[in-house]
Amino acid sequence: MPNLTLADLSSEIEANVRRALAEDIGSGDITAQLIPAERLASARVITREAATICGTAWVDAVFRQVDPRVTVHWHVQDGEHAQAEQTLFSLEGPARALLSGERAALNFLQTLSAVATRCSHYADLVEGTRVKLLDTRKTLPGLRLAQKYAVTCGGCHNHRIGLYDAFLIKENHIAACGGIAQAVNAAHQIAPGKPVEIEVESLEELREALDAGADIVMLDELSLEDMREAVKLTAGRAKLEASGGITDSTLRVIAETGVDYISLGTLTKDVKAVDLSMRLAL
């Protein structure tokens, strides 16, 4: 599946930000009202730790929606690496607006940068191999597209977006359909042209999937020896994706088996927000 780009996300970003501001500001920021409405201020946002940055467009949208008089000056771009204590962006505008937008802006930036940073780490582990690391549907509700964009900023790749754009046939689907061949054939009839991926747990099931015409075969927790054999058996007839039980220590050796893809829920699921701080000057 093609990777998401910012051009795909303009309406999504605006919607993400509207929901975040409604959740946080609600009927009005009563604390910001302590500051005179005419008071102007500047601010800068730093990262307290090294990180791969993602989320600039969400930050821009936050302050644009809070008060279009706020100007944002970026010192980094999405996908760039920042060092600890580095200034990421600076702000100028009404003090109330800077403070009201602070939390929503930093929430987006710290979360999406966390995803990009983790992905950058994993991409580095397989550098020099031909494998593509794929994300999954294990994302925060309401932020799937944002997180999947962050994956690309960290040097990894997007799998299917949801349940609608590609088939991923797993054990229960196979059982309900009566077998691998039946499941693949039914998928081709239901939505011709949609990618059909099927999960297998043995080399025998791989042969069935290949004979049925699957586009992608997911190798679920196969041994390294069986993965290498799967690459030989497949010989380019389908793409192969390794999944399940993959760790930092096993990632590279799995990549070196020759599989096309490795999918990792941890790219979006097990992230820790990057530590950011905004410093205001009146």
TrEMBL record:
SUPFAM superfamilies: Nicotinate/Quinolinate PRTase C-terminal domain-like, Nicotinate/Quinolinate PRTase N-terminal domain-like. It is an enzyme of class 2 (transferase). It comes from the Bacteria. The keyword Glycosyltransferase applies. The keyword RNA-binding does not apply. One of its GO terms (molecular function) is nicotinate-nucleotide diphosphorylase (carboxylating) activity. InterPro entries: Aldolase_TIM (IPR013785), NadC (IPR004393), NadC/ModD (IPR027277), Nicotinate_pribotase-like_C (IPR036068), Quinolinate_PRibosylTase_N_sf (IPR037128), Quinolinate_PRibosylTrfase_C (IPR002638), Quinolinate_PRibosylTrfase_N (IPR022412). Its EC number is 2.4.2.19. Keywords: Glycosyltransferase, Pyridine nucleotide biosynthesis, Transferase. Pathway: Cofactor biosynthesis; NAD(+) biosynthesis; nicotinate D-ribonucleotide from quinolinate: step 1/1. Residues 115-279 form the Quinolinate phosphoribosyl transferase C-terminal domain. Belongs to the NadC/ModD family. Involved in the catabolism of quinolinic acid (QA). This is nicotinate-nucleotide diphosphorylase (carboxylating). It comes from Ectopseudomonas khazarica. The lineage of its organism: Bacteria, Pseudomonadati, Pseudomonadota, Gammaproteobacteria, Pseudomonadales.
